[in-house]
Amino acid sequence: MKRRNFLTLxxxxxxxxxxxxxxxxxxxxxxxxxGGSASYWSLSGEPGEPYRxxxxxxxxxxxxxxxITPTFFQNDAYKQKIKTALGAxxxxxxxxxWGGGGLKSYVEAGQVEDLTGLFGDAALKGxxxxxxxxxxxxxxxxxxxxxxxxxxxxxYYNKKIFDQVGVSAPQTYGDILDLIPxxxxxxxxxxxxxxxxxxxxxxxxxFMLDRNAGSExxxxxxxxxxxxxxxxxxxxxxxxxxxxxKMNAFQKGFASTAxxxxxxxxLLYTGKAAMMVHGSWSYGIQKAQGGKFVPDGxxxxxxxxxxxxxxxxxxxxxxxxxxxxxxxSKATAADKxxxxxxxxxxxxxxxxxxxxxxSGGVPVLANSxxxxxxxxxxFQKDMSAIAAGAKTFAQSWDQALSPxxxxxxxxxxxxxxQLQVSPQQWVDNMNGVIGK
Amino acid sequence: xxxLAPPVVRGQEPTRSRGGRSDSVxxxxxxxxxxxxxxxxxxxxxxxxxxxFATWNGITPTIELTGLTSWKAALTNPGLPNALWVTFLIxxxxxLVQTPLSILLGxxxxxxxxxxxxxxxxxxxxxLLSSAAIAITYKSLLDPNFGLGAGLGIDALNQDWLxxxxxxxxxxxxxxxWQFIPFHSLIYQGAVxxxxxxxxxxxxxxxxxxxxxxxxxxxxxxxYTIITSSTLMVVGSLTFFDLIWVLTAGGPGDATRALAVQxxxxxxxxxxxxxxxxxxxxxxxxxxxxxxxxxxxxxRADQSQMEGA
Lengths: 436, 309
What we know:
By secondary structure, chain A is of the alpha/beta class. Chain A is built from 18 helices and 14 strands. In chain A, helix 8 crosses helix 10 (232-246), helix 10 (232-246) crosses helix 18 and helix 17 packs antiparallel against helix 18 (423-431). The N and C termini of chain A lie far apart (59 Å). Chain B has a domain at 81-256: MetI-like fold, CATH 1.10.3720. A two-stranded antiparallel ribbon of chain B has the order 1-2. In chain B, helix 1 packs across helix 13. The longest helix of chain B has 32 residues, at 20-51. Chain B starts with 19 loop residues before the first helix and ends in a 12-residue tail after the last helix.
């Protein structure tokens, strides 16, 4: 071989190897012969990761022929990572997600397996809370298994601060409006809000809209009916939100507070803020980071109170009806079988249920109530009651909508809280992306 | 601003190679870098240009070519004028703040003396830190509830630095300058040290003071370095993303949403890869245009700077 050819070849091989190394982050290449070897991607961090790992360990022990290999990512990083992996055909066998609009986009791209057959087994389906399947269903077919915990969003308050100021927990939205100047007068922020993260502001709108106008408005938006945001109750609700901003209901600099660093949680447990609207997962964070705050009974919680004259049912709630696991349609038949076996055995066993209860959450697995006996029992019972008693358990808007519409929504919500758009402009902007 | 071209060094022309033999060796030596550049620079760039004429949500297996649809969507996006304005504002302000300070610091450090060398070590510390680390640190320090102002009880420091539109831009410029002034000072230090000492001696004999020497000798002599440094600043400011993303995520509202942030949000959050690629192409074109313009302003490169030396 001539020297020149040899060099060309080796240069080509080096470049090829470099490129292959780039693509190798996806686990698609780790196929081994024989039994299935499914890969699994999910979120890292407390409180979920240890129980996710435990389930996989249990499955691998019980099924020596097949193996599930987990990889964990940070929340925001995962959202981008999984999309990129799906687009590059490097998706894991088991895709963890939030259901709703994101799942719908996977279904439309033909990336996830139809699981309607698997859940045709009533015994299996009966082990999960029926309300959790809504966000897993696209066009009448089930594309994901509800897993882990039900997470309603609630109103938290710092009982110590309430005692100190000499006020009692609000029963109505009117009470909240009365409380705001009282806390401000003492130099305590009435509400903690991580405004930079945007979805945090969205939680406020979700409740304000529901309590003012009922759940129909967003149902119409979700169904893609043109002009759905033009309901007068929406304008009224947006005006109320801007009034809150104008009365300094949120801490100083809320627009630059980010939820990723839990600065919003810290404001509540350090007593710099009196109240906070947040998901049920916040309890675990307050408990882990707040020192004696939660064990000493400092944290109070309730469903968001009714708004005087509002049409919404006060039992309604919003949040994550569950987390969701889908199976990649690109996986091999053996891997798919492994994944399905994981779904129908390990993920519905008693240890799974006990694990999520121990994490401080309310499992999506039915009949968990008898397990609430530990330190967190009262919180779990209340969350379970809110989830089960809700006339409507709406899915978080940004998860329910398509990614494109969700981005416009979050953008406009951030501008609404900055008083950068008027309620009418907000309605016009949002009507423009209905059904997109 | 990670890829930094070397400053203009007006050295000798490379000696001409003597024949075909050493030429072919040179070709082989260039090849690895060339291959990397083609695969990781040119190929993705062509991919982005192609994507800007397509519609893709990032996850479907097929990418549809749809002509100018994505360009129309990107150019009619109501956020575009604001993103362009923010990008321009950051570019202009960061140049205005960084250039004079870098020249002064560079001139100061160019003189050899022990205490200057000691101080220089501290000036260069920001160069060692990554943008993300700098952004996280400043974000914590500037937090109105848990930051420096609240911790030390100094009210003047306790502003809503990142939560108000104008303050957020100003804070961003401050952090950018804090990060990059050391780098540009280093370039100017090198340039000032190359000025022949005889020029200053002659000026001293003519009775020129320090200030006069600075304006009449130092500044004209580092003209080309100013052009290089400005090109790096201006083109680099187009790509600020990590710093903005961690500090403000484009907020409050859209006050700090520069083009690069807008591109990321469109592509990876709204799943509109076509319009995001169109913005990327705009960024590339603006970057090339600006560096060509600055080169032209710099004048002909073969002009002598050594008149009178």
